[in-house]
Amino acid sequence: MTEAKGTVLYASYVSPFPPYSGERIRALNLISALSSLGYEVEAIVGNFENVDLDSKNRPGVRFHQIPFAWPRLRQAAGVYLWPDAAFIEQVRALNAQKPLYAIILDYGFIGAQIQPLSRLGIPIVLGTHNLESSVTAQAVKGSGAAKAALRFRHAVEWLHERFFFQRADAVLCVSVEDRRAYSGFLDPKRLHLVPNFVDIPDIYRSTARENRIIMTGSFDNYQNSEGLRWFVNEVWDESFQARTQLCVAGKLSDRAVAEFAGVRGIVGLGVRPDLLSELARSQAAIVPLWQGGGTRLKCIEAMATRTPVVTTSKGCEGIAHQGTFRVANDAASFRAAILRVLNDPSAAAKDADRAREVFDAEYSLRANAARLMGALEGAKRVASERIKPRSPAHARLAQTG
Fold this sequence. Notes:
Elements: E1 7-12, H1 22-36, E2 40-45, E3 61-65, H2 73-76, H3 78-81, H4 85-97, E4 100-106, H5 114-118, E5 124-127, H6 132-138, H7 144-164, E6 170-173, H8 176-182, E7 191-193, E8 213-216, H9 222-234, H10 238-243, E9 246-249, H11 253-257, E10 266-270, H12 275-280, E11 284-287, H13 297-304, E12 309-311, E13 326-327, H14 331-343, H15 345-362, H16 365-386, H17 392-400
Parallel strand pairs: 1-2, 1-4, 2-3, 4-5, 5-6, 6-7, 8-9, 8-11, 9-10, 11-12, 12-13
Helix pairs in contact: 1-16, 6-7, 13-15, 14-15
C-alpha cells in the first residue's frame, strides 16, 4: 500500500450527507479529490440530518462533526465575525495527533477561523462555492422588510469577504468570473480556479431517452424556484404540454411544482436516489436561470450523462461548454432551442457527446484533483513566507518540500 503524502484537514459547515444539493456534492468531491491525490483526510463537517458519521468513514478518510451551525444572521451571526473556540480546539487536537499538511476551510463564511488556525504554522486554503455577496445582491424579495434584511445580509457578507479572505494562503474560486471579481480585493497569486466537478463514469451512452425534459436543482434556492416559475409561465405553452413532459427533480422540487398544479404535463420528482439516471433518461436538461453564480453542477452533470442542455447565458455562466449547449435568453428563443433538440435528436446527441469530452477535460475529478494540488502547493509557498524561519512549523514545511 502506498504511504500517504500527509494529512489534510477539510472543514465545512456544509452537511454532506445525504448529497442532494450542489454545496454538499462539491464538499464530498473535494474530499474525494484530496484522497485521490494520496492524502489522508480528516473531514470536519456539518451534520444537519444527524447521520452516523462514523459509518461514512472509509480508508484514508475520517468524518467528524463541526461544533457550529451554518451561519444565519439571526441564529448564529457570531460565526461571521469571531472564531469558534470549540472548533479551534478540535483542529488543534487533530494536529497534535498527526501533524497536518494543510487545512482547507470550505464554503465562504468560515473566514473568522483563519487567523487562529494560521498560528499553528499550517497552510490555510479557503474554499468558496460562489461570490456569495454577489448572489445575495441578486435576490429579489417583495416586502420592504425582506429587502432591508437582504441589504443587511449583503453588507455583512461583503465585509466578511474583504476582511477575512485576505488572511488565507490560497482561495479556491469556482469560475473565471469569480476569480476576476476576487482579484479586485485579493492578491491574484493566491487565487486558484477549481470549478465544480464530479466523478461520473461514462456509462450513460446507451441509456434510452424518454419523451420528457428535466430541470434539476435545490428548490429552496431562489434562483432555481424563480427560474422554474419563468419557464412555466413564459415558455411551457400548450404545444409543449401536448408533446412532452417536464420533470422537476431535486430538493423540494415536489413542493415547487405544487404552484403549477393546474398546468398540464409537469411532474415533481422530489429527491431522487439516482439523479444521474433521471438526467440520462431525458431528452434535454433545461437551466432557465437568471440569477446566481459559480459553475452550475446541473450543467456539469448533464454533460457527464450526455444529456443535451438548453440554458440561459446566466445558467451556463462559468461553464466552458465550447458551443455544445443551446443558449437562449428570451422565451421565444428558449422554446425554439428545446424544439431543435426534440425535432433533431441525432444532432443534439452529437453535441452532447462533445460535451462529455469537455467534461472529461475540465470538470472530471481527475482534472480538478490536479488543480487542487496546485492550490495546496501555492498555499504552502505563501505560508512558508509568513511563518518565522526558525519555527518548528517552518522546518516541517521545508522538510516536506
